């Protein structure tokens, strides 16, 4: 089973600044990695798939990069609605599909 | 736009069967491009994949749950369902259903693209 480790667990950033979130896989997942945004009471929202492809209607300030075992989600110029929990997901080696533990992005 | 909605009892007694249904709207569950999955999140913990099913009925299960798990699909109702027997407090979680879309550039790789809002299920003694 592939383990995804996200860091940091909590990230405090001011609105308008850049946030950088990391996801590390225990073995290569090639580019089969997605990022999601999760807010309480809402369905998780797909942001990035195939490591770097933005999903439909996702703003350009969300950027995914990486391949193999190291991945990054960068959110430039944070907006108020961006403060949420973000998690990564690998779909390269399955079953089982696995997820990271999440990074909580909070307002500084 | 595709929407998914989980439904079922929010409270289950220990040792009984936890049952949930996911209703899909805005698209057909019978499309060949998708799998349909269940994921859960215990309070304060991370996400755990439970299992996934294709419209024809072929399914993959998490090995840790396989002995207690059954996932089925009803194409006539555009629904798929989860049954987890012998429930314990460890099964208390927010249960999500989601659609899995195949990569356009490589077959056999499916990511979750649309999710429901989740159904909180508490298992009590």
Describe this structure in words.
The complex is a heterodimer of chains A (108) and B (125). Helix content of chain A is 0%, strand content 49%. Chain A is mainly beta. In chain A, strands 2, 4, 5, 6, 9, 10 and 11 form a seven-stranded mixed β-sheet that branches. Chain A has a four-stranded antiparallel β-sheet with strand order 1-3-8-7, with no helix packed on it. Chain A is globular, with a radius of gyration of 13 Å. The model of chain A has no long low-confidence stretch (mean pLDDT 96). Chain B has strands at 3-7, 11-13, 18-25, 34-41, 48-53, 59-61, 69-74, 79-84, 93-102, 110-115, 119-124. In chain B, the strands form two sheets. In chain B, strands 2, 4, 5, 6, 9, 10 and 11 form a seven-stranded mixed β-sheet that branches. In chain B, strands 1-3-8-7 form a four-stranded antiparallel β-sheet, with no helix packed on it. In chain B, a hairpin with a 6-residue loop joins strand 4 (34-41) and strand 5 (48-53). Chain A binds chain B through residues 32, 34, 36, 41-46, 49-50, 55, 87, 89, 91-92, 94-102, and chain B through 4, 37, 39, 46-49, 52, 60-63, 96, 98, 100, 103, 105, 109-118.
Question: How are the secondary structure elements laid out?
Answer:
The complex is a heterodimer of chains A (108) and B (125).
Chain A: E1 4-7, E2 10-13, E3 19-25, E4 33-38, E5 45-49, E6 53-54, E7 62-67, E8 70-75, E9 85-90, E10 98-99, E11 103-107
Parallel strand pairs in A: 2-11
Antiparallel strand pairs in A: 1-3, 3-8, 4-5, 4-9, 5-6, 7-8, 9-10, 9-11
Chain B: E1 3-7, E2 11-13, E3 18-25, E4 34-41, E5 48-53, E6 59-61, E7 69-74, E8 79-84, E9 93-102, E10 110-115, E11 119-124
Parallel strand pairs in B: 2-11
Antiparallel strand pairs in B: 1-3, 3-8, 4-5, 4-9, 5-6, 7-8, 9-10, 9-11
């Amino acid at each position: 089973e592939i383990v995804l480790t996200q860091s940091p667990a909590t990230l405090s950033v001011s609105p308008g600044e850049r946030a950088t979130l990391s996801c590390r896989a225990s073995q290569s997942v090639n580019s089969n990695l997605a990022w999601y945004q999760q807010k309480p009471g809402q369905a998780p929202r797909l942001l990035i798939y195939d490591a770097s492809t933005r999903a439909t209607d996702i703003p350009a300030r969300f950027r995914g990069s990486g391949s193999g075992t190291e991945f990054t989600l960068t959110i430039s110029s944070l907006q108020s609605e961006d403060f949420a929990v973000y998690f990564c997901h690998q779909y390269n080696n399955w079953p089982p599909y696995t997820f990271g533990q999440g990074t909580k992005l909070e307002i500084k | 736009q595709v929407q998914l909605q989980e439904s079922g009892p929010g409270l289950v007694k220990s040792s009984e069967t936890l049952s949930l249904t996911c209703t899909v709207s805005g698209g057909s569950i019978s499309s060949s491009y998708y799998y349909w999955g269940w994921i859960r999140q215990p309070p304060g913990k991370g996400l755990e994949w439970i299992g996934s099913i294709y419209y024809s009925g072929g399914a993959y299960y998490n090995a840790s749950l396989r002995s207690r798990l059954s996932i089925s699909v009803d194409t006539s109702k555009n629904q798929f369902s989860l049954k987890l027997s012998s429930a314990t407090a460890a099964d208390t979680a927010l249960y999500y259903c989601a659609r899995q879309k195949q990569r356009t550039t490589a077959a056999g790789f499916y990511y979750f693209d649309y999710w429901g809002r989740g159904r909180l299920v508490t298992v009590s003694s």
